[in-house]
Amino acid sequence: GTAYLYISGAFKRQLAGLELVDESCTGGTASVTFTNIGTSDVAATSIKAVRTAGGSGPAVITITPANIAPGTQGTLSDTGCGTGQTCVYKITPPSGRSLTGIPVLCT
User: Fold this and answer.
1) How far is CA 91 from the centre of its chain?
2) Which of 30, 68, 101, 103 is deepest in the core (most CB within 10 A)?
3) Each residue's pLDDT expressed in tens, for the chain with a length of 107 residues
């Protein structure tokens, strides 16, 4: 019984989090689209998003929409990336799988 509870809990944690859909950049604004693969809503304010490398100015990051339901997409936007720069992002939900090392080339 204890082994089952442990294994099922670990499995649920692996199924929660974010999955990368696409990344792009237009006019110096980097965008990363992701899907909530968990079973609970995720508030945008509970997601920690940082630019870990690159950019020509300070990161100006927003996450939309305000609430990301299971199976739906959210978007990180960074208006501070800059044309000709490659910016790298890490997006961490309150639980489950994070997205790390996401490069976005702004041409």
Assistant:
1) 4
2) 30
3) 666 555 555 444 456 899 999 999 998 899 999 999 999 999 999 999 999 999 888 999 999 999 999 999 999 999 999 889 999 999 999 999 999 999 999 98
Taking CA atoms, 49 is separated from 7, 10, 23, 41, in Å, by: 29, 24, 14, 17
- C-alpha dihedral, 46 to 16 to 36 to 59, nearest 10°: 40
Q: For residue 38, list its beta bridge partners.
A: none
* Residues composing the chain: 107
Contact 101, 21 (CB under 8 A): no
Phi-psi map region of 55: left, alpha, beta (phi>0 left; psi -120 to 50 alpha): left
